Amino acid sequence: MTQPVQNPKPRPRTLSRVAAVQALYQAEQAAQSPEAVIDQFIRHRLQAGGEADDGQLAAHIPLFAQIVRTATDQQDTIDTLIANALPATWPMDRLDPVLRALLRAAGAELFAADGPPAKVVINEYLDVAHSFFSGEEPRLANGVLDQIAHHLRPTEFSPA
Asked: What is the chain's mean pLDDT, rounded?
């Protein structure tokens, strides 16, 4: 009898991205400052690296905080990039708030020129999107993030 394939434990950097999406969502929905949300997550939901216990996520805390801060500090620029990548019939305020938070978090990572390669960022956030959504949202996220990545990091993509 074959054993079911065990899903590997999520990596700390991936968990940081999931937590950043949740934190950005919480900050927007509860009208909380990003620093207050970062502090809450660090004290109550995240554990630095290693094994998580007591329901906390084993995350890479500096990455988590950097994503939330950049997404907030650069929100106007990131929102413009997102809005320009969306279909004309789909304004920002029509996006599901979790999807909006995910696109902002990914946009923040793409905004950092010294961050991981754009294709890695897109793949990571597509995995995150699939953990939150089962419909067309991951496909929409892929298209939007691809356009943003091409705009912010054109040298990472070969000419067509």
From this structure: 87
